[in-house]
Design a protein that fits this description.
The protein is mostly helical. The chain is about 65% helix and about 0% strand. The two termini are about 20 Å apart.
């Protein structure tokens, strides 16, 4: 599944701002995959 650049940029901003890796230990790629599957709701 292709994700547009604007949404990817927004997810990246959210990921960094909320320190997702430091808090949950998941990579950005895994974060995006979970968001695409509907596991995460941001």
């Amino acid at each position: 599944m292709k994700i547009n650049d604007e949404m990817l940029d927004r997810l990246g901003t959210y990921f960094v701002y909320h320190a997702v890796y430091d808090t949950y230990g998941i990579t950005f790629e895994n974060f995006v995959e979970r968001w695409l599957r509907g596991i995460l709701d941001i």
